[in-house]
Amino acid sequence: KGKPGYGRVISSCHFWAPAVTIELFKETYLPIIKNDGLKQFDLYTLTDKAEQDDHCANIYHKSILYLVSYAFEEVMRIPLIRDIGEPILGMAKYVANDAALTDLFKHSKVNWYQSPNNIPEGEVGASRCLGHGDFDDDRSTLISTVTRILRKEPPNPELEFQRSADSMKDERAQLNSLTKL
């Protein structure tokens, strides 16, 4: 935890809405970042509004990270007793209210991008995700991440996606609604 691996320096690390607790991030990644064992760290999260508009199979009407934070971690949300759950790094509401993280994001080698945003596609930080299942299917996020990794714009940003099961299900539901008699 927090020790540089074999004396190596990591060029970059990119998290897309990670389900890691803030506590574990602080124990493992924060010391490496502070000791220059990691040259560049980028965190992508949904905005809190997007988190609240997301859903888990229309059974739980918030993002999967809300469900994890509120119900599946050691610190659970209990209405009228404790209004928050376990702080998760992939959730904007917790990142914004953590003093150590707020201080960390003041450094040029550490960035936090919230999605959806208006950063032009092709620039670092661009992301149009509206839900957690979108990050690996979002052209803007992928180009942004590859641009950061390569430290230059990708030579051919034409991307072909293999749709995730979740996005295919949404597409099927939309087609079904259009073809109902």
Task: Describe the fold and architecture.
By secondary structure, this protein is mainly α. It has one domain (5-179). It is 36% helix and 9% strand. It is built from 7 helices and 3 strands; from the N terminus they run E-H-E-H-H-H-H-E-H-H. Strand 1 (13-16), helix 1 (22-34) and strand 2 form a beta-alpha-beta unit. The protein is flat, with a radius of gyration of 18 Å. The mean pLDDT is 85.
Brief synopsis:
With 181 residues, the protein is mainly alpha-helical. It has helices spanning 22-34, 48-53, 64-72, 92-95, 99-104, 139-150, 165-179, and strands at 13-16, 41-46, 110-115.
Keywords, separated by commas or semicolons:
mainly alpha
Percent helix among the residues? 25-40%
The secondary-structure element order is EHEHHHHEHH
Q: Structural class of the helices, strands and pairings?
A: mainly alpha
Count helical runs.
7
Radius of gyration: 18 Å
Mean pLDDT: 85
- N-to-C CA distance: 58 Å
Describe the protein's topology.
Layout: E1 13-16, H1 22-34, E2 41-46, H2 48-53, H3 64-72, H4 92-95, H5 99-104, E3 110-115, H6 139-150, H7 165-179
Parallel strand pairs: 1-2, 2-3
